[in-house]
Amino acid sequence: GAGVSQSPSNKVTEKGKDVELRCDPISGHTALYWYRQSLGQGLEFLIYFQGNSAPDKSGLPSDRFSAERTGGSVSTLTIQRTQQEDSAVYLCASRTTGTWEQFFGPGTRLTVL
Amino acid sequence: AQKVTQAQTEISVVEKEDVTLDCVYETRDTTYYLFWYKQPPSGELVFLIRRNSFDEQNEISGRYSWNFQKSTSSFNFTITASQVVDSAVYFCALSEVISSGSARQLTFGSGTQLTVLP
Prior knowledge:
The structure holds two protein chains of two kinds.
Chain A: E1 5-7, E2 10-13, E3 19-24, E4 31-38, E5 42-50, E6 65-69, E7 75-79, E8 88-95, E9 103-104, E10 108-112
Chain B: E1 3-5, E2 10-14, E3 19-21, E4 24-26, E5 32-39, E6 46-52, E7 59-61, E8 64-69, E9 74-79, E10 88-96, E11 107-108, E12 112-117
Parallel strand pairs in B: 2-12
Antiparallel strand pairs in B: 1-4, 3-9, 5-6, 5-10, 7-8, 8-9, 10-11, 10-12
């Protein structure tokens, strides 16, 4: 079956612009996670959606970051007023109920000039 | 707070050598899960194995084996007879279990870059 997909694969933007990153989880997976991977900080958790529960936003680094998950499926991560330190690979993962392993998408490489 | 330490930043071996990647974790939880993921040069994280905190049985899958020792909070990964295709960054990760039975986010180690030379 299809895995987790993310778009775009690459995004170059100018400092101060807003960006939206999209994640399509594996069909039927109820849990969805966003992480980012950067050279200095490694792999960091950002936000977690589980079914219809309120998301766990404890990993979002600032209020410029937000995410939503519509219809329990597709998720969008939005970064407002991007800064150069936001440059990283943004990874999405999903997990099905009753299992523990997360399956990752290919990531979106964000470069803020 | 949870923490995962992979002290080996880079390891280089010659093909057919055995190699062990170390992972030490810290958690206050009694119930948790440990994972290993592989990130090849293509960049996508690939799930390798999951182990829960109540199961200390070692596991072998082909050339891969995992040694979980709760007493030392370690979850080490050994590749036997390494191959060039094993070259990748390997991440150890930890996840706590919520009371509802669901799993929280993964806390990752910093990764070990394994290079297998021909």
